[in-house]
Amino acid sequence: MTQVEPVIAPEPVSEPIPETDELDEYKIDTSELPDYEHPPNALSIYKVYEFLNTKIKETMIEDIRGIFTSKKIKTKLDFSEVVDDEDLDE
């Protein structure tokens, strides 16, 4: 029976992360990707829109509720009705 020596992986060398507020923009090389034509699906676009719209409204409600709480303002407002823009009569 042959003994196998364990292989110890080297520890990853972590480079210090520079403390800066600058953002770097990265561009991915797409020159080698094949051309692909795919028409957008209206239903898929609508689903993405609805998802994002719902998340935005939820965040707005949480933020408004947080502001009222931090200012110790008590109210009986339904924040979901305040943020809801579905039934605008213009």
Overview features:
90 residues; mainly alpha; extended
Q: What does the model show?
A:
There is one protein chain. This protein has 90 residues and is mainly alpha-helical. The chain contains two helices and no strands. The model has no long low-confidence stretch (mean pLDDT 81).
Secondary-structure blueprint of this entry?
Elements: H1 42-70, H2 79-83
What's the helix-strand series?
Answer: HH
Binned strand content: under 5%
What helical percentage do the residues reach?
Answer: 25-40%
Q: List low-confidence stretches.
A: none
Whole-angstrom Rg: 26 Å
Mean pLDDT: 81
C-alpha termini separation: 85 Å
Briefly say what this structure is:
With 90 residues, this protein is mainly alpha-helical. It has 2 helices and no strands.
